[in-house]
Amino acid sequence: DAKTTQPTSMDCAEGRAANLPCNHSTISGNEYVYWYRQIHSQGPQYIIHGLKNNETNEMASLIITEDRKSSTLILPHATLRDTAVYYCIVRVELTGGGNKLTFGTGTQLKVEL
Amino acid sequence: NAGVTQTPKFRILKIGQSMTLQCTQDMNHNYMYWYRQDPGMGLKLIYYSVGAGITDKGEVPNGYNVSRSTTEDFPLRLELAAPSQTSVYFCASSAAWNTIYFGEGSWLTVV
After folding, report:
1. What pLDDT is stored for residue A102 in this prediction?
2. Which residues in chain A touch residue B42, judged by CB atoms under 8 angstroms apart?
3. pLDDT at residue B10, rounded to an integer
């Protein structure tokens, strides 16, 4: 499985953009990058995913480099409620269908006033 | 708006006891998963199911059993509980290779 590397922690001022980096240099050509977050030991919450094009939804934007070896999750206007652990995951397709998401230890994002 | 529902939320077990964690989803997803999360760590896949009657092992299956008799339900059974099984357990579901949706977790302590 492709491994991901993320900073252990980051701080961000409320209202500013939070840019969370992720390295996935061993990713294969057909593997997707997924981002989840986990707020205070709740169930992980899906944020966004992408293959090679940049993606945007109501929560965030995902920028994937052209060589696909790294990506950045952008929360455009971070709020205190965005304080969470953010996981960058390379999705593996299981035999017969379904996904395997291998979670690392993620990045603890702290949004402050 | 139920999604994935897990019960119980909290449970304390004595060493050697057995119990079942219940999981049900109302999204008609074929694929269901059980993960565990130890303190300060990421989630690890215990078992998964690609449909009723079909289950397979994940990364850390030892000490657990699962069954999938219906599309909606995917219970996880702990036999002969050990302190190493103290963890938070998350059930999840997805449609084919689409996004996985997680439940809120079940906190289990084995003493």
Report:
1. 82
2. 87, 102-106
3. 96
DSSP tag of B83: G
The whole-number average pLDDT for the span B65-85 is 96
Q: Which residues contact B104 (CB under 8 A, 6 or more apart)?
A: A42, A43, B6, B9
Of A87, A97, A106, the CB nearest to B97: A97
User: Which residue in this structure is represented by tokens 């339900």?
Assistant: B73
Distances (CA, A) of B84 to A48, B10, B110: 33, 17, 8
Contact B42 A105 (CB under 8 A): yes
CA distance A45 to chain B (A): 7
Residue B4, classified by CB atoms within 10 Å of its CB into exposed (0-12), middle (13-18) or buried (19+), is buried
Comparison of pLDDT for A33 and B98, the residue scoring more: A33
